[in-house]
Specification:
- By secondary structure, the chain is of the alpha+beta class.
- It has a single domain, classed as Ubiquitin-like (UB roll), CATH 3.10.20.30.
- The protein is 16% helix and 23% strand.
- The longest helix has 11 residues.
């Protein structure tokens, strides 16, 4: 009997603050060949994801996208490979103030 063919799909690593939308799931395998398709498919499975990640037809300011550990330019049209690992991370702001003179 032939071995079944399993199509590989990108994996999205869900940040802790968004896991309530995924019922606590941390890693989700989802189809898509662009960031836009991945977000759309995530939103189909977990309503509210697109609202958290996008405004109109682009990523929200302050959302960074890493594909396979590399920061992208942040376009929803960025292509992803079938074995890609995608991270949507809120930008970190603030920091330590300079000490007084």
């Amino acid at each position: 009997m032939p071995t079944p063919y399993f199509k590989k799909m990108p994996t999205v690593v869900i940040p802790p603050l968004m896991r309530k939308l995924t019922d606590g799931e941390e890693n989700i395998t989802i189809p898509g060949t662009t960031i836009r398709e991945v977000i759309s498919n995530l939103d189909d499975r977990y309503p509210g994801m697109k609202e958290r990640l996008c405004e109109e037809y682009r990523l929200k300011p302050g959302i960074a996208v890493y594909i396979n550990g590399l920061l992208t330019r942040g376009s929803i049209l960025d292509r992803v490979d079938t074995d890609a690992e995608i991270h949507f991370l809120p930008a970190i702001s603030g920091g330590v103030a300079a000490p007084p003179d």
